[in-house]
Amino acid sequence: GDSVTQMEGPVTLSEEAFLTINCTYTATGYPSLFWYVQYPGEGLQLLLKATKADDKGSNKGFEATYRKETTSFHLEKGSVQVSDSAVYFCALNQNAGNMLTFGGGTRLMVKP
Amino acid sequence: EAEVAQSPRYKITEKSQAVAFWCDPISGHATLYWYRQILGQGPELLVQFQDESVVDDSQLPKDRFSAERLKGVDSTLKIQPAELGDSAMYLCASSLRPIRETQYFGPGTRLLVL
Known about the structure:
Chain A is mainly β.
């Protein structure tokens, strides 16, 4: 079945550092890929998405590129802020249905 | 901006008791999802509705869990009887259609079973 693997956290960075959170997936066909963010005690918010190979999703300074050849969708940000501290989830859905398959999440902690 | 509403936000109950969660999706969204998120893990789908019909409940523990969406709008998820292992965050999401659509999540209900 489909699966998503994320790098384990926590990832601890200083403010203004460069962020990369790795995400790889296993799926048949051509899924859509997502990054969701979860702040403490809250639900998930969609951060960005990409629906086909080589698409780049971007939002609030975060970017991720759908790489079919490496089955990856790594999340990057050039300069993190303390307010980016949260748990980040990579997910996919098969376009034949709409069920989301999530990775285990990566906690990001940004220190001033 | 329209949001998915859930209540209660927090629920503490004793094992063997019944508990219910409510979800109101974004207006006009035909597809509604219930997920369970165990602490430290990603969410897992419990049930998916298209309008008032269940389209996927393969991961719903049907001996104790039930879900309904009687008028195809809001939905209720029930657990009876609750067990210690049911302690988790229960998330509701909705999308405009069932295929190739972004899901929007509510704030969740955090359940603690004592």
